C-alpha cells in the first residue's frame, strides 16, 4: 500500500477512514472485501479495482468511469446477473499480482475516487444487504505499518478520521521520560503511548506487585502477578504491542540523572521527596521542561477527600511556580494513598491533567489561563489555578 499517496489524497483517505480495506498497487486502487451475491444466491467477497489518475503525489478527478472486479460476477439478490454495469471484456492480468475477472461500466461524472468506488460498492453490496442486512464493505481492517514508517505498529486512523493529524505531528520526534510507574505514571504511559513521540523512556526499579494491578491500566492476570515481573517489563510488554520506541531503565532516575539529559520532556510521577528534589534541580539546571504530579488523599468522616496537583516548568517560566512542588515524603499514618487503596480513577485523572498540560506546551491544546500549576479538589469538585490559589490566600 502506498501510505503517502493515501495520506495526501483526501478521497483515498476518506475511503480508509470510513473503514474500507483499500490498497494502492502499481497504479491501481483496490477496495477489498466487498460483499456481493453469486448466481447461487450466496454472499461472497470480491475486490473492486480502478486505475488511478494522479497529479504528482495525490489523486486527481477520475476521467475514466470504468472499474474492474475480481471474483464471480455480482448478481441481484435473486441470482440474476447485474447487467446494468456489465461491460463485456475478457479477464485481464493487470500486473503486480492483480487479476481482473470482469470489467464494469457505470457512466457518471465522478467527483473523486471516493465517489466512484462507493457508487459501484452501493450497486454491488446493496444486493447482498437484501439477503443479509449486516454485511458491509466497511470492515475497518487492522493496517500494520513497516519499521521506519511510523512509531505505531498499525495506522493511527483515530487521528486521520477527525482531521487532527497535523496537530498531533507537533509531537513527532520527541524523546519523553516518565519517572515512576507505580500508579499515576502508568496512566501517563497509557496516554503518551498513543501519541507520535519518537521515544518513551521509563524509569522505575520496582516489581509489579498485586497492589499495582489495582492502580494501573489494563487487567493483569494471576499468572502475570505470580511471575513477579518488574513494573517496566510488564508495562513495556503491553505497550510494545502497539508502538515502537519504548525503552526501559530499571534504575531510580535520581541515582543516574545523566540518563535524562537527552530528554525533550520529563514526567515526574514519584512520591519520594528527596529523589524528586534532586531531579527537579537537575531538570531546571539543564533547561529540560517537565511536569510534576502529586496527590494527597485522606480519609475524613468515613469518606476519602483530597487534592490532585499538576505543576509544570520550562526555561523562561517564573521560578516561583517551583515552590508548588511537594518534596515531603508520604506520611504513612495520615495518607491513605500509602496503603494502596484502590483509587485508579484518581491516578487516571492526575495523569490526564499532566498530559493535557504537556500538550498545551506543544500547542495542541489552547491555553488561555497560562497557569503552570493547578489542583483539583475532590470534595469541592473545583479546579484551581495557581493564581486563583494565591488570590484566595
TrEMBL record:
Question: What InterPro entries does the record point to?
Answer: DUF6791, ThiF_NAD_FAD-bd, Ubiquitin-activating_enz
Report domain THIF-type NAD/FAD binding fold positions. Answer: 169-295
| Start and end residues of each DUF6791 domain | 10-157
GO molecular function terms here? ubiquitin-like modifier activating enzyme activity
Please report the name of this protein according to its UniProt entry: ThiF family protein
Amino acid at each position: 500500500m502506498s501510505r503517502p499517496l493515501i495520506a495526501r489524497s483526501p478521497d483515498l483517505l476518506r475511503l480508509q477512514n470510513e473503514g474500507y480495506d483499500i490498497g494502492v498497487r502499481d497504479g491501481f486502487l483496490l477496495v477489498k472485501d466487498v460483499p456481493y451475491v453469486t448466481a447461487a444466491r450466496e454472499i461472497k467477497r470480491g475486490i473492486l479495482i480502478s486505475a488511478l489518475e494522479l497529479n504528482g503525489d495525490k489523486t486527481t478527478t477520475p476521467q475514466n468511469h470504468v472499474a474492474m472486479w475480481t471474483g464471480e460476477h455480482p448478481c441481484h439478490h435473486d441470482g440474476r446477473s447485474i447487467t446494468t454495469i456489465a461491460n463485456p471484456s475478457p479477464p485481464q492480468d493487470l500486473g503486480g499480482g492483480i487479476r481482473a475477472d470482469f470489467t464494469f461500466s457505470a457512466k457518471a461524472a465522478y467527483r473523486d475516487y471516493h465517489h466512484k468506488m462507493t457508487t459501484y460498492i452501493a450497486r454491488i453490496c446493496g444486493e447482498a444487504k437484501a439477503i443479509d442486512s449486516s454485511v458491509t464493505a466497511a470492515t475497518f481492517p487492522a493496517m500494520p505499518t513497516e519499521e521506519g514508517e511510523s512509531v505505531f505498529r498499525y495506522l493511527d486512523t483515530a487521528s486521520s478520521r477527525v482531521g487532527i493529524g497535523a496537530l498531533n505531528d507537533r509531537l513527532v520526534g520527541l524523546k519523553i521520560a516518565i519517572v515512576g510507574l507505580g500508579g499515576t505514571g502508568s496512566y501517563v504511559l497509557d496516554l503518551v503511548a498513543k501519541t507520535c513521540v519518537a521515544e518513551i523512556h521509563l524509569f522505575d526499579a520496582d516489581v509489579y506487585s498485586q497492589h499495582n494491578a489495582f492502580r494501573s491500566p489494563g487487567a493483569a492476570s494471576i499468572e502475570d502477578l505470580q511471575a513477579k515481573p518488574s513494573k517496566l517489563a510488564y508495562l513495556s510488554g503491553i505497550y510494545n504491542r502497539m508502538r515502537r520506541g519504548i525503552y526501559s531503565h530499571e534504575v531510580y532516575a535520581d541515582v543516574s540523572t545523566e540518563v535524562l539529559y537527552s530528554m525533550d520532556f520529563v514526567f515526574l510521577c514519584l512520591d519520594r521527596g528527596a529523589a524528586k528534589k534532586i531531579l527537579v534541580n537537575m531538570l531546571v539546571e539543564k533547561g529540560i521542561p517537565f511536569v510534576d504530579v502529586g496527590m494527597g488523599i485522606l480519609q475524613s468522616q468515613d469518606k476519602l477527600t483530597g487534592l490532585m496537583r499538576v505543576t509544570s516548568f520550562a526555561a523562561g517560566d517564573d521560578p516561583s511556580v517551583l515552590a508548588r512542588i511537594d518534596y515531603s515524603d508520604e506520611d504513612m499514618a495520615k495518607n491513605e494513598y500509602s496503603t494502596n487503596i484502590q483509587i485508579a480513577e484518581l491516578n487516571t485523572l492526575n495523569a490526564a491533567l499532566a498530559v493535557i498540560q504537556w500538550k498545551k506546551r506543544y500547542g495542541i491544546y489552547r491555553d488561555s489561563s497560562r497557569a503552570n500549576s493547578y489542583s483539583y479538589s475532590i470534595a469541592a469538585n473545583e479546579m484551581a489555578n495557581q493564581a486563583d490559589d494565591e488570590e484566595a490566600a
